[in-house]
């Protein structure tokens, strides 16, 4: 096995890490802060960031129009706002949607000739603006990945961009900002992190130090999920574990990628409004069954890290609320047409691989 690991993001961890490391925000004199409507403010992260910027004599303006599953049109609009503000860098504060959007905004900001859809072509003249990130949810690992998942307004389809231009310059990882998350959001983002860790673990690339990251976070994430399945009271130590393990899981998928639950999960998010983490978790059972069949040794390791597989499936299912979504065989075949001409790397990276026909069969089997 031959592969490379590239991780250029400077991560600072711990309580008050934004205030204590404000000098790391000295990426220019002007900054566009990118947020959604609520989490940056409710978590206290926005106030801390503004104070840190003031301390470093950096001026800022705020763009707060990023929603869940960020639209390329919103990112394009924010890019124009960054140019109007003469921003030298982007500071994204929020959950995975905001962090992903910030990466795209940095590209649009420095390339005024790009139309919204052009970002998928991955060709532009000017280097993206530097990006700093402050996470407020414990799930995506976007703080350390070179990926941004964006939604095409016209088709409603989620599609990712990736590459060195999608790495942050610096990420601030303070678990206290996750304390304002609702129980449902906490569960969904935790399921997303678990999906990252487990799907990445079962790829062929997950060996060496990457396997150490996966083996570090899988048992801790599962123990947190067990607790979440029994109570909606979330103690601070659990939130801290969830946040840090989501970063470990992000380090895993940054090189290993994800498997078929992620692209199948996009169908549930796009068409049924299911939160991303729960949408991925909907396919945990068929995925782990294929792992047992085609990756027996790692499956044994997974069981040793978690529990008897029936119990693991029950815990994941108890946390996965699909609002009664049922996909008919006809609709499943229609949704699977998106993989007719090009089989995603997520399919080929899955143990045993996955065909378009198998994807349709799995989609039609979803009902919680």
Structure description:
The chain is an alpha/beta fold and about 375 residues long. It folds into two domains: about 10-175, 3-Layer(aba) Sandwich (Rossmann fold); about 180-365, Dehydroquinate synthase-like, alpha domain (Up-down Bundle). Helix content is about 50%, strand content about 10%. The chain has 16 helices and eight strands. Strand 6 (about 145-150) and strand 7 form a beta hairpin. The longest helix has 22 residues, at about 210-230. The two termini are about 40 Å apart.
Supply the key terms.
49% helix, 2 domains, Dehydroquinate synthase-like, alpha domain, 8 strands, globular, 368 residues, 6-stranded parallel β-sheet, Rossmann fold, two-stranded antiparallel ribbon, alpha/beta, 16 helices
Q: Summarize this, please?
A:
Helix content is 49%, strand content 11%. The protein has 368 residues and is an alpha/beta fold. The protein has a six-stranded parallel β-sheet with strand order 1-8-5-4-2-3, with helices on both faces. It has a two-stranded antiparallel sheet with strand order 6-7.
Q: Ranges with pLDDT <50 over ≥5 residues?
A: none
Provide the helix percentage: 40-55%
CATH topology of the largest domain: Dehydroquinate synthase-like, alpha domain
β-strand number: 8
* Count of structural domains: 2
Q: Which of globular, elongated, flat, extended, rod-shaped describes the shape?
A: globular
**What structural class do helix, strand and pairing data support?**
alpha/beta
Would you tell me the overall average pLDDT?
A: 96
CATH superfamily of the largest domain: Dehydroquinate synthase-like - alpha domain
CA-to-CA gap between the ends? 38 Å
Question: How many strands, which pairing sense, and closed or not: the largest β-sheet?
Answer: 6 strands, parallel
Give the SSE string.
EHEHHEHEHEEEEHHHHHHHHHHH
Strand order of the largest sheet: 1-8-5-4-2-3
Strand content: 5-15%
Main CATH class of the largest domain: Mainly Alpha
**Could you tell me the radius of gyration in angstroms?**
20 Å
CATH architecture of the largest domain: Up-down Bundle
Individual helix count? 16
